[in-house]
Design a protein that fits this description.
Layout lengths: L8 H7 L3 E7 L3 H17 L5 H14 L1 E3 L2 E5 L3 H24 L1 H28 L1 E3 L2 E5 L3 H16 L6 H14 L1 E3 L2 E5 L3 H37 L6 H41 L1 E3 L3 E5 L3 H17 L5 H14 L1 E5 L17 H8 L8
Antiparallel strand pairs: 1-2, 1-10, 2-3, 3-4, 4-5, 5-6, 6-7, 7-8, 8-9, 9-10
Helix pairs in contact: 2-3, 2-11, 3-4, 4-5, 4-12, 5-6, 5-12, 6-7, 7-8, 8-9, 9-10, 10-11
Length: about 375
């Protein structure tokens, strides 16, 4: 009598040993620049119509060059889906502008209407983006609800104003937890155990870093001012020329200094929050996350990116995006808790992109980092 010795699925899962892999990004600034500049030119020539194709090309480039455990990510949305959403968003925008310009009362009502519509747009936009994202032929999903979105994106930010924004780090913590804990993969949710104290610590570290940069900028400006006074005492006398030059230099110092302070703040804050968020998250029974992004490295990257974009009038944007993607991927480690080959796609095929595009159009742009 023959005995079946094939391991059962449960036995196979018990035999699986967890393993970790780093995320890799293989894109290059030169390669993406050619895509980016064509996107800009064609978008301008078509009065914005090509922007739908530009968005899909950009997403597919970054997804297709992001690799984990030998498999690349996929972006499934089509340009027509995006274009339909943007046309509807444009119609909504025209109606809103008409109301504010010609019927002020309706304009006020439109503002309140948009306020109540925003949580729905956030949810639908996240839902669309997740359903259009795939790894190993399995798509992501977003299952947020209107009530939670309204509380986190409308109620709590308004309440934080009355606390002189002392509640804001806690609000940001709630928003991050909501956006990430409602994401699922293979019908398994992401569990997020973030702590409010870490967000307050991130803000404190960012403010300290900004203070140091601010003092440095003021010192440079002070040295320049003393040098200028010395030159003004020159008996030859070039007061008018020096005044013009000093005004230009001071404006440059102000713009560069403001850019540096903002970049340093974002670099420090985002590094600490990203590490805490990923290290506190796990896809139930599927994967764990680890982020070991270094504050100094990412802050310098953010600073040099900002200055490069500023000095090149935006032409360095592709280079900056690729540099950022490479560093974030290198700092991300995924631990597989089960055999990813056993996972199946539980998502449907259709979803509307209108809410996401409407959110973009009204400056409600959301990203997962």
């Amino acid at each position: 009598m023959d005995l079946d010795t094939t391991p059962t699925p449960s036995a196979r899962s018990q035999e699986f040993e967890a393993y970790s892999r780093r995320v890799e990004f293989s894109g290059s600034g030169k390669e993406f620049f050619s895509i980016w500049i064509v996107n800009i030119v064609l978008t301008l020539l078509t009065l914005g119509i090509y922007s739908a194709w530009a968005k899909v090309r950009t997403y597919r480039y970054f997804y297709g060059h992001t690799q984990l455990d030998g498999h690349r990510f996929d972006y499934l949305a089509s340009p027509i889906q995006i274009l339909k959403g943007r046309i509807l968003a444009f119609i909504l925008f025209v109606i809103y502008m008409f109301c504010t310009q010609f019927v002020p009362i309706l304009g006020v009502l439109a503002v309140f209407g948009l306020l109540f519509l925003m949580p729905w747009m956030v949810n639908q936009g996240m839902r669309f983006n997740m359903r259009m994202s795939r790894y190993r032929n399995v798509r992501f999903a977003f299952k947020g609800n209107y009530g939670d979105a309204f509380l986190n994106f409308i109620v709590l930010p308004i309440v934080s104003v009355f606390t002189l924004y002392l509640l804001l780090p806690y609000v940001l913590k709630r928003i991050d937890k909501y956006l990430h804990s409602e994401i699922s993969y293979a019908d398994k949710p992401i569990t997020v155990n973030t702590k409010g104290g870490e967000y307050y610590l991130a803000v404190i570290l960012a403010y300290v870093a900004c203070a140091i940069v601010g003092v440095l900028v003021m010192t440079i400006a002070g040295v320049f001012g003393l040098s200028l006074q010395t030159m003004m005492l020159d008996p030859e006398g070039f007061e008018q020329s020096l005044t013009t030059i000093s005004a230009v230099v001071l404006i440059i110092l102000f713009v560069v200094g403001y850019t540096a302070i903002f970049a340093v703040y974002m670099g420090v804050y985002q590094t600490h929050v990203r590490n805490h968020l990923l290290n506190s998250s796990e896809i139930e029974g599927i994967a764990g996350f680890k982020s070991d992004l270094r504050i100094v490295d990412y802050t310098l990257l953010t600073l040099t990116n900002a200055l490069a974009v500023l000095c090149t009038l935006g032409l360095a944007i592709p280079w900056a995006k690729v540099r950022t993607a490479k560093m974030l991927c290198r700092a991300t480690e995924i631990t597989f808790l089960c055999d990813p080959q056993t996972l199946t796609d539980a998502q449907g095929e259709q979803n509307s992109s209108f809410a996401e595009e409407a959110a973009d159009f009204f400056d409600v742009d959301l990203s997962l980092g």
